């Protein structure tokens, strides 16, 4: 399974909800089911959905969506029922006790609480990526604590990743893979820096439970389609790996690999 979507394709899905104290949080879905019902007008409202594990052999759709919190819009501590990555792409703020800014990457294992997510004066924008969909919404703590499953907890935040400016990217002559994080169970984060017109093979998705990718700068070309900054891709374990070709301005692509299912959260 290979799925890709551009920022332009996701834009029509953008809509706002309100926090409990009256600030707006926007969401745009790139692919996969919506992470919670659109009908809910408030982030504090429970979705009423009960998470059910995939059946043996079932592969659920991956998810990719963009969240934009305006200044003052705090998302309170919560958890989800699946592993996920979050990538800060604009603004700034904090996640729990950690300051975050572009490009910060956070991994949270299933049933691991995190937060609050607090935007700074310029707001905070970040992507959420999941290899297996969860449409039950945020499980806010402590109220939803009884729903949390007794799984090993895992929160990982990597050091902010620096992107090259447009001129430096366009002038690049080589391609490199930078290892940001790499664990024995498959969990990994890489940055691919591609020179204009060059091709790179992405890290093998089969070493973990698939990979999600974010075009962080420049553009890549695939099947006649141009994927510019803030485009998202997913590659399943079965596909193993794909080739990425940079456009005329070069490209920088963030690659995030999920831990193997039997080791997730360890």
What's the short version?
The chain contains two helices and 18 strands. It is mainly beta and 266 residues long.
List its salient traits:
266 residues, mainly beta, Jelly Rolls, eight-stranded antiparallel sheet, 18 strands, globular
Topology:
Elements: E1 2-5, H1 7-10, E2 15-18, E3 24-31, E4 63-69, E5 78-79, E6 84-95, E7 98-100, E8 104-108, E9 117-130, E10 139-140, E11 155-157, H2 166-170, E12 176-182, E13 188-194, E14 199-201, E15 211-222, E16 225-228, E17 232-235, E18 243-257
Antiparallel strand pairs: 1-17, 2-3, 3-4, 4-9, 5-10, 6-7, 6-8, 6-9, 8-11, 12-13, 13-18, 14-18, 15-16, 15-17, 15-18
The percent range for strand residues is 35-45%
- What about the largest sheet? 8 strands, antiparallel
**C-alpha end-to-end distance:** 26 Å
CATH topology (fold) name of the largest domain: Jelly Rolls
Helicity range of the residues? under 10%
CATH superfamily of the largest domain: Jelly Rolls
Model description:
The protein has helices at 7-10, 166-170; strands at residues 2-5, 15-18, 24-31, 63-69, 78-79, 84-95, 98-100, 104-108, 117-130, 139-140, 155-157, 176-182, 188-194, 199-201, 211-222, 225-228, 232-235, 243-257. By secondary structure, it is mainly beta. The chain folds into two domains: 2-42 and 61-157, Jelly Rolls (Sandwich), CATH 2.60.120; 166-263, Jelly Rolls, CATH 2.60.120. A hairpin with a 2-residue loop joins strand 15 and strand 16 (225-228). The chain starts with a strand and ends in a 9-residue tail after the last strand. The mean pLDDT is 92.
């Amino acid at each position: 399974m290979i799925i890709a979507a551009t920022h332009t394709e996701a834009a029509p899905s953008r809509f706002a909800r309100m926090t409990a104290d009256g600030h707006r949080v926007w969401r745009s879905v790139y692919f996969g089911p919506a992470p919670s019902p659109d009908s809910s007008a408030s982030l504090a409202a429970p979705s009423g959905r009960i998470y059910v594990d995939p059946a043996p052999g079932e592969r659920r759709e991956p998810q990719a969506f963009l969240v934009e919190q305006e200044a003052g819009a705090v998302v309170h501590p919560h958890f989800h029922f699946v592993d996920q990555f979050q990538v800060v792409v604009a603004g700034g703020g904090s996640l729990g006790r950690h300051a975050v800014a572009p490009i910060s990457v956070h991994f949270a294992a299933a049933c691991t609480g995190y937060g609050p997510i607090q935007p700074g004066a310029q707001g905070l924008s970040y992507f959420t990526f999941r290899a297996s969909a969860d449409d039950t919404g945020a499980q806010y703590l402590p109220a939803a604590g009884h729903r949390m499953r007794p799984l090993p907890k895992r929160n990982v935040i990597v050091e902010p990743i620096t992107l090259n400016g447009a001129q430096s990217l366009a002038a690049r002559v080589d391609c490199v893979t930078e290892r940001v994080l790499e664990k024995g169970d498959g969990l990994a984060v890489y940055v691919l820096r591609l020179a204009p017109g060059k091709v790179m093979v992405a890290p093998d998705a089969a070493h973990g439970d698939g990979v999600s990718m974010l075009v962080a700068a420049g553009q890549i070309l695939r099947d006649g389609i141009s994927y510019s900054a803030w485009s998202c891709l997913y590659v399943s374990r079965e596909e193993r790996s794909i080739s990425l070709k940079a456009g005329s301005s070069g490209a920088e692509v963030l690659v995030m690999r999920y831990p193997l299912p039997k080791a997730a959260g360890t």
